[in-house]
């Protein structure tokens, strides 16, 4: 490296790239360093579902910044970003009750309650057995296999320097130590995702950081189902902090424990998202410091059966299965720490890093913080 950039970003996942994007917008010189040769972490393994509305009230301002960032980045770099919202079919009264309460709480701008026919049309399954549902118009969809790689390519063309295949071994006071020697910058933002333990072990331990693994499947999409589909279900209502804070969430959890014990056992957030190549179906959650690499076929089948049941797909054609990984903590949803005056560590410790990415990047660059952004409900239970 010949000159010292204003900013080094460690990690080319969506948090690192969003940070590089905002810094580049501000006219700062940026270098991104990653141990891989392209984005391959959590940021390409997910649904690409930017679920702003379902997040906790406390993080809604950050979500709004994130939404603006996604729109600007998509327009600039030219990746697909659909402002198609989220559909939530309610198959029982308990699910509908949570949706009604959430609509009252957030208002008509954010939550549109729909009847059974409306939600059936929204997800492209006219025969859906629902009692009603909701549409969250604010939410967005991106293709996770496209967004980070295209953004990285665009940033590189714009003059952001990328140093690939270079493991970072330490960061302090504007010096980034790597296996290829030291790099220097005025400021450093460290975005290593679930690999935080390898760089700041004490910080990771203080925040009880662990790896969450999720069983995921890609299936063919029948033409009748919208390519930009984003669909959450009852298990999502019991899990996402915004919905889970509603008074009816307790009754819904009890109902799910009796009605869908297998989904509850694998800590499912049953959801489906469309991408040009098909439908992404997931997911289960298992937590460990050092996860098993194996995909449990029973869990994959369970999620597939329930999702295709809701969508009326009789014979799903499976194209891919994978075990996604993301950083998780039972104690906080966001690690935003400043180990020294020139270093900021930014890790989203929950499955919402795509959603919040540009908002978290803004906090990392402006020195902002969010206190009390803790997980609601069952993520505080430690599971294997
Ligand atoms: C199956 C699944 C579904 C999900 N669904 C959603 C969803 O629908 N909506 C949503 O908002 N979120 C979702 N998430 C969560 C989201 O994907 C993550 O929160 C987000 O991608 C984290 O981004 P990141 O940049 O922190 O991590 P990553 O994308 O993992 O990037 C971290 C980068 O840092 C690099 N790195 C790490 N350590 C070093 C080092 N020492 N030296 C050099 N480089 C290093 C890695 O190589 C990697 O490229 C999901 C996650 C999964 C796995």
Automatic annotation (TrEMBL):
The keyword Flavoprotein applies. Keywords: Flavoprotein, Oxidoreductase. Its cofactor is FAD. Residues 6-363 form the FAD dependent oxidoreductase domain. Gene3D superfamilies: D-Amino Acid Oxidase, subunit A, domain 2 (3.30.9.10), FAD/NAD(P)-binding domain (3.50.50.60). Signal peptide: none annotated. NCBIfam families: HpnW_proposed. Belongs to the DadA oxidoreductase family. This is TIGR03364 family FAD-dependent oxidoreductase. It comes from Corynebacterium suedekumii.
